[in-house]
Amino acid sequence: MILPSASPVSLALAILAALAYAAPAVARLPTGVARMAVLIAWLLHGLLLGWGLLGEAPRFGFAPALSVTAWLVAAVYAIESRLYPQLQTRWTLSALGAGMVLLALFFPGQPLQTNASVWLPLHLALGIASYGLFAVAVVHALLMLRAEQRIRLAADTDSGLPLLTLERLTFRFVTAGFVLLSATLLAGVLFDEQLYGTAWKWSHKIVFSLLSWGVFAVLLIGRARFGWRGWRAARLLFTGAGLLLLAYVGYRFVLEIVLGRSVA
């Protein structure tokens, strides 16, 4: 286990954030109290991430990447829950947040290379931000499909957002994620040697990232030109998100945990 190496500050912040996230997931709290718990958890989670990058020797890996993604998803939820009080994802996101905080505590990743550029954290932040936006898009797509199914079954649809609103939000997040992913890939291709201190070369990470970029590009073109929606659009979104997950998180998990190798 990696847990014993965690600093007292990281350990305390992680435990408090996990407990705050878990509260709405395991207890029947009033709506206002549950939202406040998620907000407190999000703030503690943010402090934990900041301390890991600035207060200690910077480390990164598959679990911190998932932790940052969960934090971004929680941030979007906090904003959307104010705009759309009927949004019903609190339980799932609370459980996800608690799990990712604890996962990153046990597997904090490997130290960033000393010969890497000072811009590397920004490059990683852009990439993980695109992860977060696509993760939010996936959540909205799942809600969209559920709403569509309930309409087909003539079931009650007042328990969530309207279908067209969910669809519009889904593609807004896909578009924003695509822009950030494009910027991340462009920076990686042009400045890979300056960022990582090594010459650019093909890798599984780059191949899966480019494949996911292509899938998202097809999705956005299909949406704009042919009005793709429903399951057709969702399948492409899930495929692109899966490829993007393999590009970094899956790649790092295999090398760090399965093979126990140091990676850039």
Write the layout of secondary structure elements.
Layout: H1 8-26, H2 31-55, E1 59-60, H3 62-83, H4 90-106, E2 110-111, H5 120-152, H6 163-196, H7 204-226, H8 230-258
Antiparallel strand pairs: 1-2
Helix pairs in contact: 1-2, 1-4, 2-3, 2-4, 3-4, 3-5, 3-8, 5-6, 5-8, 6-7, 7-8
Keywords, separated by commas or semicolons:
two-stranded antiparallel ribbon; flat; mainly alpha; 2% strand; 264 residues
Written account of the structure:
The chain has one domain (3-258). The protein has eight helices and two strands. The chain has helices at 8-26, 31-55, 62-83, 90-106, 120-152, 163-196, 204-226, 230-258; strands at residues 59-60, 110-111. The protein has a two-stranded antiparallel ribbon with strand order 1-2. The protein is flat, with a radius of gyration of 19 Å.
Q: What's the story with the biggest beta sheet? A: 2 strands, antiparallel
Amount of helix:
over 70%
Q: Number of helical runs?
A: 8
Compute the average pLDDT.
80
How do the strands of the widest beta sheet line up side by side?
1-2
Weakly predicted, low-confidence segments: none
Distance between the termini: 22 Å
**Overall form:** flat
Q: SSE string, helix = H, strand = E?
A: HHEHHEHHHH
Strand content: under 5%
Overall tally of domains = 1
Radius of gyration from the CA trace?
19 Å
Structural class: mainly alpha
Give the strand tally. 2
Summarize the structure.
The chain has 264 residues and is an all-alpha fold. Helix content is 77%, strand content 2%.
